[in-house]
Design goal:
The chain has 207 residues and is an alpha/beta fold. The chain has 6 helices and 10 strands. The strands form 2 sheets. The protein has an 8-stranded mixed β-sheet with strand order 1-2-4-3-5-6-9-10, sandwiched between helices. Strands 7-8 form a two-stranded antiparallel sheet.
Length: 207
């Protein structure tokens, strides 16, 4: 397995990417959460990528704009950008003839669901505690909010709600495995219910 770090310019923005090349045609694209980075929670994505490589599966990890080693500030990011960046990296792997699975955590899982609803060539989807953001929002697009010490514009959450993640899940044609936590302090029961009821017969929802 060859592990390399590189910068790619997507949508005019520099995105930090780590590739774990196991030499095969199967690849997992990891999508980190709202306050996270390409390493994943407690470096879970790093450990998973290296374990997958032992079985001949390559991985791509990346930092969204304004996160980790990518350019920009978190305040400048938006959910629409998150989806566009994920889709661009996915398309790049598909154009190489790879078989791709998306693995997303938290808002990265929400973005992965949206992108999976666009791309029918996707082989599979793993969504780890996705938040469909069904709650009403009393915020303007340019309002600056603080989330656990991190600044973000209101447009991020407005765009996430407008994307209608639950409706996107109904359009995901590939097999999907969705993990939800019944004690999740960030994703409440109403949002977990929205995901569970949107899942189709070829989707598994685990709590």
């Amino acid at each position: 397995m060859v592990e390399t770090s590189e910068d790619r310019v997507l949508g005019g923005r520099r995105i930090s990417v780590v590739v774990h090349d196991a030499g095969g045609e199967d690849v997992v694209l990891f999508c980190h959460g709202f306050l996270g980075s390409s390493t994943g929670p407690q470096r879970a994505f790093v450990r998973a990528a290296r374990r997958l490589a032992e079985h001949g599966v390559s991985s791509v990890r990346f930092d969204q704009y304004g996160s980790g080693g990518s350019a920009g500030e978190h305040e400048e990011s938006s959910f629409t950008d998150w989806c566009a960046t994920t889709a661009a990296l996915l398309d790049a792997e598909l154009e190489r003839g790879r078989r791709v699975v998306l693995f997303g955590q938290s808002m990265g899982a929400s973005a992965a669901i949206v992108v999976a609803s666009w791309q029918r060539a996707l082989q599979g989807l793993v969504a780890w505690v996705p938040d469909p953001n069904t709650d009403p929002l009393d915020v303007g697009p340019d309002d600056v909010l603080e989330e656990a010490g991190q600044l973000v514009r209101g447009r991020y959450w407005l765009e996430a709600r407008e994307a209608d993640v639950a409706a996107c899940l109904r359009r995901v044609a590939c097999p999907a495995y969705i993990v939800q936590g019944t004690g999740d302090a960030l994703v409440d029961e109403a949002n977990r219910h929205a995901i569970a009821t949107a899942a189709r017969d070829h989707h598994v929802v685990d709590t």
